[in-house]
Task: structure prediction
Amino acid sequence: MSTPWPPQYDPSYLPPPDCPFWWKDVETMDPAQREEKIILQKLQAQLKYTYEHSSLYKKKWQRAGIRPEDIRSLADFEQIPFLTKEEIRQDQRENPPFGSNLCVSRKELARVQGTSGTTGKPTAFGISRGDMQRIAEAHARIMWGFGVRQEDIVFIGSFFSLYWGSWGALLGAERLGAVAFPFGAGVAGQTDRAIEWMKEVRPTVFYGTPSYSLYIAERAKERGIDPARDFNFRILFFSGEPGAGVPSTKKRIEETYGAVCIDSGSTAEMTPWMANSECVHRQGMHLWQDIVYAELVDPATQKRVPYGQEGVTVYTHLERNSQPMIRFWAGDISRWVDDPCPCGRTYPRLPRGIYGRADDMFVVRGENVYPSAIENVLRGIPGFGDEYRIIITREKTMDEMIVQAEYVKGIDPQMISSLKDKLEAELKANGLRAVVQMVEPDRLERTEFKARRVIDKRDLYDEITRKR
Ligand SMILES: [Zn+2]
Result:
């Protein structure tokens, strides 16, 4: 079977509104058949194209002794070496601005996007016009899958900047024919205005970060507005932070807004395509394998792990002609399963989302700690507010973890110390040794974007002791 690559999608196509699928045949296909008939075909075309157009991969694969025509199965594909974030950065330093992996001419580029650069030099992404259409199609298809329809008003409460998430939500909403409400975030006073507009325009779908949705709700409540009653949201979908996949955070968001909370997103290098996302049933993110091919790999053996097991995420674009990522080692930890989802889609799922983001992980006393594990415990205990900080410090060369947690307003002051004990005990039961410091409501800074909740002060300790 030979299909044109990259795929061209009919921009006027829409499924019937009552159909839960965008492309029922593809989404519910027998997985082995889908792998053979669709994924492998797209993958082989992507590899051939990439080899011919990207000197980054050409050199890399030649060094490994691999040619695209050698890849005849998905098992063969595992011979392709991984691509790391550092390799992309290095390549972009040597070949600024896009590296030697930009496969189209400047004339074909539609957009420059990038990473925020908070953890090192920003990575630049060039996106072609054709890719823009395919991205819109992918987003629309997945948003359809979690229930967005033409009559919905999609409020995008996130930065319109280098950050891709907001643009993806906008493109998807527009392609799907829904009403896009690109509100943005980050300007002084904007949260209060967001609350006004939410009451006035009554948008039905929200996109942003989990942290920001909780902050908006908190501000609304202070003004006597109940988000579940006075707003009109039925779906909130998120990327950029793991929160929407953290069970107790998801529960909080759903109860606060009286709406469903959908987890989505993979990692910045892949995100022009939002190919990890939950469906309306919220049983963990589906890996939409015919859009972006995802693998879960054992970090030690670097082999794909069987379903049911934990591994780190590796992603491959299947329809990106501008700057494809092939076996990109995102390195986030998750577990995948292939048991059936009530929606009928046959894609594998990440039942607990991506709970270990490589960028968020820190090491305390030799143990890997993920902030989402602490968040899940904390937000599962009634009496605690939504905000917290994790401070890692050093006491006589030993690491100490301090969790600063806000309690809710109006709590009986006598309850505060028992709440502290409860959180410490539950953290301990989850293998997390921490000292809890109770903080009065509204003390900790709020965010309109991705929260930075981990403060590592160990360098400071080292600096002070070295000077002595
Ligand atoms: Zn599903």
